[in-house]
Design goal:
- The chain is an alpha+beta fold.
- Among the domains are: 78 residues, no CATH class; 196 residues, no CATH class.
- Helices cover 55% and strands 10% of the residues.
- It has 18 helices and 12 strands.
- The strands form 4 sheets. Strands 1, 2, 3, 4 and 6 form a 5-stranded antiparallel beta sheet that branches. It has a 3-stranded mixed beta sheet with strand order 5-9-8.
- A hairpin with a 5-residue loop joins strand 3 and strand 4.
- It is globular and about 65 Å long.
- The protein starts with 10 loop residues before the first helix and ends in a 5-residue tail after the last helix.
């Protein structure tokens, strides 16, 4: 794992590295007929390049490490093992550069801001890295600091992605609306550079779940936070891999807590935390879960929130017709083969409620990926009724693939319908 390297910022430099990575890994797998050794070498190259680039590139690698259906099945084990290291600890930025960001943003020498500071980060991700520190009153804190130059690197990645979007838009059918989809993705990722906004969202989630002993959200230390620095109470806990090895009862409580956090946020709070990264969850022996990272949050409001609530209530009541009507409204479908596939996919996504109690498995998540593939095949089919995802829906796919993949790692049967019905009744949204 590369450490202490400056983030490459230039658009062409970053584009060339990604292009070269694709050529090297693809050729390596092809020439070796997909052998184990080739898969391992290719995976190591992916981790090195994506980790050094950080930004959107690292996000893609981190997501690939846990989302079922992304990695080629023949090489999945080799790639997952290597990419897991990227998820757990992306390459870090030099200590002196990190200190400079903290002092510049908080307006004082580091020694005045913190009573203790550890130059070695205990976590590093695509946008920033996290350091242990202590306040003057003795409280232990986690200080997340943006990688120096990551704003320019992210802008370069988005510009490269914009070139791809423009090329797609030139040949794709008008219904695809690649420009709008890209604008939505760009807005969410740029928001992740504003730690002040993240702090505000973290407080909102904490307020929504206050009183729930199973959901823990670290307190934000406002006096030591800014646009590029976010200080919170230090949290400790087990990883998803460790949680997955615990007894069945504890794993069930974890899954119930995760479902409550996600869907109470969506349906009651009107907020979707759109980064279900396993590193953002810390698991405790009593079944509680600490939730970290609120940088990518998708608002859910207006008619979309109304239709989403109706879909969930219909699923809880096992009302197939009402569910289909609400799904068609939220997706904006207009008949034809595409609507048929879209409604079937939506229904499949809600199987944890319709079929509750249910064990979410990798095979189930893979079946969702097949459903998306079937819908994509209708883009160029004449009179299929294809429609673009409505505004605000682009990141919801992270729910089905990212979040459900996390639940699959816990491998336990859960009565998700009972969990959801309880908090909806408490909020007055279910009779």
């Amino acid at each position: 794992m590369t450490t202490g390297k400056k983030v490459p910022e230039g658009r062409l430099n970053r584009f060339a590295r990604l292009a070269g990575l694709g050529a090297r890994t693809g050729a390596g797998l092809l020439l070796s007929r997909g052998g184990e050794a080739a898969a391992e070498r290719a995976a190591e190259q992916v981790v090195e390049v994506l980790g050094t680039l950080r930004g959107l590139a690292a996000k893609v690698g981190q997501m690939a490490s846990y989302v079922d259906g992304i990695l080629p099945e023949g090489q999945r084990e080799a790639f997952e093992g290597a990419l897991r290291s990227l998820r757990a600890a992306a390459p870090t930025s030099p200590p002196e550069a990190i200190r400079a960001v903290v002092e510049e943003d908080l307006g004082a020498p580091l020694g005045e801001l913190f009573a203790a500071w550890d130059d070695a980060p205990f976590a590093s991700a695509s946008i920033g890295q996290v350091h242990r520190a202590a306040l003057a009153d003795g409280r232990e804190v986690a200080v997340k600091v943006q990688h120096p130059g990551i704003d320019r690197a992210l802008a370069a990645d988005l510009e490269n992605a914009g070139m791809i979007q423009a090329a797609v838009g030139a040949v794709a059918p008008k219904a695809l609306d690649a420009k709008r989809v890209f604008a939505e993705v760009k807005a969410r990722f740029l928001e992740e550079l504003d730690y002040g906004l993240e702090a505000e969202r973290q407080r909102r989630f904490a307020a929504l779940h206050r009183g729930d002993p199973g959901i823990r959200i670290p307190e934000v230390i406002g006096a030591r936070s800014s646009r590029r620095v976010l200080t919170t109470a230090l949290a400790r806990g087990a990883t998803l891999e460790e949680a997955g090895a615990r007894d069945e009862h504890t794993r069930r409580v974890y899954a119930e807590t995760l479902w409550r956090f996600v869907f109470k946020g969506n349906l009651v709070g009107g907020m979707f935390n759109a980064d279900p990264h396993p590193g953002n969850y810390l698991f405790h022996l009593d079944g509680a879960v600490t939730f970290l990272d609120f940088g990518c949050v998708e608002p859910i409001d207006g008619a979309r929130l109304e239709h989403a609530r109706a879909m969930h209530v219909a699923a809880l009541r096992r009302d197939e017709a009402a569910f289909a009507r609400s799904a068609a409204r939220i997706l904006g479908t207009r008949g034809g083969r595409f609507e048929e596939l879209a409604l079937a996919y939506s229904r499949r996504c809600f199987e944890p409620l319709f079929g509750s109690p249910l064990r979410v498995t990798r095979d189930y998540v893979l079946s969702l990926a097949e459903g998306v593939k079937a819908m994509k095949q209708q883009i160029l089919v004449k009179d299929s009724g294809f429609v673009q995802l409505p505004p605000g829906m682009v990141f919801m796919n992270r729910l089905q693939f990212g979040f459900y993949s996390v639940l699959a790692r816990l491998d336990v049967e859960v009565d998700y319908a009972a969990v959801e019905a309880a908090f909806l009744r408490d909020a007055g949204l279910l009779e």
